[in-house]
Each structure stands twice: as C-alpha cells, then as structure tokens.
Amino acid sequence: MAQAHTRMTRQRAVILEELRKSRMHPTADELYSRVRERLPRISLGTVYRNLDFLADSGEIRRLEAAGSIRRFDGDMTQHQHVRCVYCGRIGDVMQVREAPTVDGMRVEGFAEVLSSRVEFDGICKMCAAALPAGAE
After folding, report:
1. Sequence-distant contacts of 69-78: CB under 8 A, at least 24 apart
2. Same structural domain for residues 58 and 82?
3. Are residue 54 and residue 94 in the same domain, yes or no?
4. This model's pTM is above 0.70
5. How far apart are the first and last CA of the chain?
6. Based on the domain organization, do 125 and 61 belong to the same domain?
7. Rounded Cα–Cα distance for residues 28 and 69 (Å)
8. Domain shared by 9 and 71, yes or no
9. Using one digit for the tens of pLDDT, what is the confidence trace for 53-67?
C-alpha cells in the first residue's frame, strides 16, 4: 500500500522535470502554468500536493521565509539563496561555505537541531535598475 504513495507518477515526474528545468525558483502557481502546457487536465491542487510530497521526500527544496510566497528549488546541490527585498525573486549563491552548525552553542528548548540554512537578502538587478539613484 505504501508503494502507491511513493511511486513516481507521470504527473509527479512532469512537475519534477519542469522544476528542474527552471533556475527561477518558481511558486506552485508559476509551476502549474508550465506543467499545464504538458498536462492540460492537471489541477492546481495536484501540483501543490506533489510539490509537498517531493519536498517531504527530499527530491526538491521548499524555500520558505516569513511573509514570503513559498517557492521551490529542484537543484539539490549544496548552495544557499539570496532573496530580493523588493520583488521576492530568489537567486542561487554558488560559492558554498558550510552552513553554520550549533556546535558549542547553547540552543534552548530544543532536543536536537536537524538542519540549518543560510539565506541572504539583496536587491536583484531588475529592481536596482528601477530604483531612483541612491535609493538602495
């Protein structure tokens, strides 16, 4: 029975392929538009459920920040992200350094830290070009 929930369905495979083709870290809605070109009958709910499944199973990354729209990344190589503070666009930071650990730090109220991530804030080139001179 569990195998039916973990198999790579055609819908799931197309969602994964489209996500991995993109370097733009799309939202579920943006990915839905792309997937519908290949699977016209797919629903937005199906895309959301499959993205959550793929993220929970470690096939893709779910990028979440407080107050921001959830985005997804199909590139599972180790890297960090930079988010534009104006438009929310996400880019990759590829000169990878180890993510910080809690070795030697006191972490209150938690039995274990499972992972860590670094995310940078910045201004993308399109937003910077639209800003008045000196407004950064």
Report:
1. 69/27, 70/27, 70/28, 71/25, 71/26, 71/27, 72/19, 72/25, 72/26, 72/27, 72/28, 72/31, 73/19, 73/25, 74/16, 74/19, 74/20, 74/21, 74/22, 75/20, 75/23
2. no
3. no
4. yes
5. 55
6. no
7. 9
8. yes
9. 999 999 999 998 766
